[in-house]
């Protein structure tokens, strides 16, 4: 499927008999549709040039994005050649050296151009080029026919516009006689051309041009002969909608300057005018701003010079002893002026004073020694006010030598993230002697409590270890006793005969006879 880049195109064709055909084609998504047709026959009263101008006016060719024209019949030719991949400025000179091999007439007898927008099957072999040439007398006839137009993009024979348009389809162009119809079939390179296609006069246009992306709304209702007459114009209009026509406009036979397109010339002139005005305005404002800065610098220099002179005059009036008094007073005042802790000291003490698992969030504001921050801590039970006691945290912050006037503002619980946030504000200032003494006593109490807690934990650990050791020893003794009970008794090793007890309740032997 071709790549459409334009929205509309007007195509105009005429033949030697004076039959002039024109269509207006518009793009609709990835398809194109014939929206308007026009045809007329030249006679003694109207020439072909007049018909072409009338067709362009009827189809509003000035408003179309592209306009293409072509004269049907002989007097032109094309050849598909392979050239090296050269830049555009070198390709035309290279083709001119090969021109005599592919044209039947010398170069001064023809007008020629080329198309370099063909598909490449094997880029290593070179670049596919379609050479298009027209006899000088035929070219002059074409120029006479389009002389009534105000603007035109291309003049190209319809068969030369094939590839990549309909590159995999066989296209049939009818001629004046049905038996002279020409077939252009895809080939390994270029097109295989066959003349005299049988029964070509009976084929509708959708079989002459088998393109599923063209909607034949208006043309499909016409008789077959009329449909065939519009086939060259349909190919040219479809070609004018593709990006290939944009590339070929610079390499095909060039039209006179009076026919070159002048679309959107007013818009281009307006844009150029606006650009020029913008540049002039920027230069003007730059010059005005530079002049204002220069005037301001001059005023500042004048004021500075005046102030310097006044200071020098005042210094002359001040005596040496007064200078010493002023210097002593300045030193005394600088020693009395209180200073405040800086942000790094405050952040360091906050980091040391806030115990885990709490942390400072990104909501931290420093305003000339006034600090507001948010404390975040994970909380598994929302009924708890906090995992860290607020009063202990306030005392810890107050004990810092760089922090004072600590206040807890509000507290909130985030159910989704299971964390509690508390807002505080404080002042970055040095402690007074009274506050330092209170902080020292509180730190001493805190250290004593910590020491007692550590001592209690140490004793509990020792008692636990002792109990575990005693339990282990008792378990070992129990295992030894169980092993002794399960051991069998040893048998006697002496050879003393054992007395076997007589059996009991045995019957007595009978008495002897005679007794």
Helical content (DSSP H or I, runs of 4+): 25-40%
Output the radius of gyration: 55 Å
What is the tally of helical segments? 12
Largest sheet: 6 strands, mixed
Beta-strand portion reads: 15-25%
Shape: elongated
Question: How is this structure best described in words?
Answer:
The chain is an alpha+beta fold. It is built from twelve helices and 16 strands. The longest helix has 53 residues, at 265-317. The termini are far apart.
Which characteristics define this entry?
alpha+beta; 16 strands; 22% strand; elongated; 4-stranded antiparallel β-sheet
Write the layout of secondary structure elements.
Layout: E1 8-14, E2 19-28, E3 31-41, H1 48-58, E4 67-71, E5 76-83, H2 88-102, E6 110-115, E7 127-135, H3 136-145, E8 154-155, E9 171-173, E10 182-186, E11 191-195, H4 205-208, E12 214-215, H5 224-229, H6 231-240, H7 243-248, H8 265-317, H9 320-336, H10 343-353, E13 359-367, E14 370-378, H11 390-398, E15 403-414, E16 419-428, H12 433-485
